[in-house]
Specification:
The chain is α/β, with parallel strands linked by helices. The protein has two domains: 97 residues, no CATH class; 174 residues, no CATH class. The protein contains 13 helices and five strands. Strands 1, 2, 3, 4 and 5 form a five-stranded mixed beta sheet that branches. The two termini are 37 Å apart.
Amino acid sequence: MSEILEEEARTRIELNFENAVDEVYRHNHSIRLLVQECLDNRKHGEDDLNDREKKSLQTFANALYSISFKGSQRVRKHGIAQAFVSELERKLRIPEDIISYKKIQSSRQSVDHREKEATRYQNDSRNISITIKSFSDLVEYLKGKSTMQFLDEIGEVAKIDDIKNIIESIDEVEALPGQPVKDSFAVIVEKVKILPQDLWKKETVDETICFVYLNNKQYLFVGRFMLMESPLIADLIHRALAVVLKTSIKVDATLEKLLSFFSFRLNISARAFFKDFRKYTKNIK
């Protein structure tokens, strides 16, 4: 491996290491302690790291790589990802192959893709909002077409895999005895400071985009119209984001807080999401 690549990787790691820790800390408060334990040579054996810690280190590596090469064409240099991983594993004093260079490459490509797509989706949203600007427009639309046709015309503002990756990037919280385990989505709900009972309505809300939980099933509704049912929360978020961004139909306040978290992580501007001068709140960043 080229000494030049190794030196470049080492330099970029040193320059951006703390920024990456801060970035990951926003959604994984255990990362500081884990990184420090690695630096203190307390995680030098593969058996010293459990699956959750390995996943956290991969997430950290993805963030560090993304920050280090943001806006740089050097990210395309052959061998730079391998050199980066080797130097990072050396700095963290962890075994080889804990961090995947292929995953940090795909993570960087995903960020680049989302940044480009966010601009295109914001432009697209202006066109569709002219047609479906309000609930009344939707009522007129559905006189001649189905809800499935509506969803097809609305399209998407992110790939479903991007939504899943955001959820999966949040570590589950290990439970104390007598307490339920908090899965990744439960941690997100807590992070954005909403209550599950406020998010999941027992019935539809007039002229409003909302989530409904009824008969052990999860639904996305707009007013009285059921747009979709899915056991997967990522599916509902995927569709709800598109409807919110590409129309001006009122959205339930609790659902809006949840969707703003995903909108922020997808690099969609606050202006495009809120359609006014509000900013993303600090707790979602």
